[in-house]
Amino acid sequence: MAPAADEILGIHLIADLAAQGPLDDPARIETMLVEAAAAARVRLLEVRLHHFGDGQGVTGVALLAESHISVHSWPERALAAVDIFVCGAHADPQAALEVIRAHLDATILRRLEVPRLGRP
Amino acid sequence: MAPAADEILGIHLIADLAAQGPLDDPARIETMLVEAAAAARVRLLEVRLHHFGDGQGVTGVALLAESHISVHSWPERALAAVDIFVCGAHADPQAALEVIRAHLDATILRRLEVPRLGRP
Q: Does the predicted model carry a pTM greater than 0.90?
């Protein structure tokens, strides 16, 4: 069944950040993702992390019962790309973004809110 | 170092699909993600899958050296949400989307191409 005209299945916050925080530290990014999921009031299934080497970036994905949160970091440029895609009326993606912004000591360069799977 | 004015670090394709294909089959979604990464000419780090139960949806994420590809499915609605976020001039996100569209026997309801970490 397609969603009704005024229904959406999820909200996807896209944010590009200029960050002074621990962009090359997978343990701190893992903690950040766990706290972001809690702030968003979603159920965390697992966090997966890849660190591309000393002083290099980290890819971190939190798989959620309500979709995902991802962070990709470029410490050499002090940049991070964040996606917070959450479904359900109870979820609070903006709270997750604020947790991530604070952990990374970041300024939001760009923020885009995309309704997913509703009418465009 | 911030990117130059005309530089972007990645392209993020967002696509919402109406799909007749195997939205409740994690093994087929895993194969699809592997083939999508190959089509995009990116390096796959790992695929993680969660199946929410018989006849229910799947969350699948392909972690890439160049960011990620994710699929969330709702078989009860015949809908899927796809994200293809790839960095590097060699990557071809559209080719990955076409692989996913074909695997899921899908129509693209909405497609949005977001440059990441460049100037808005």
A: yes
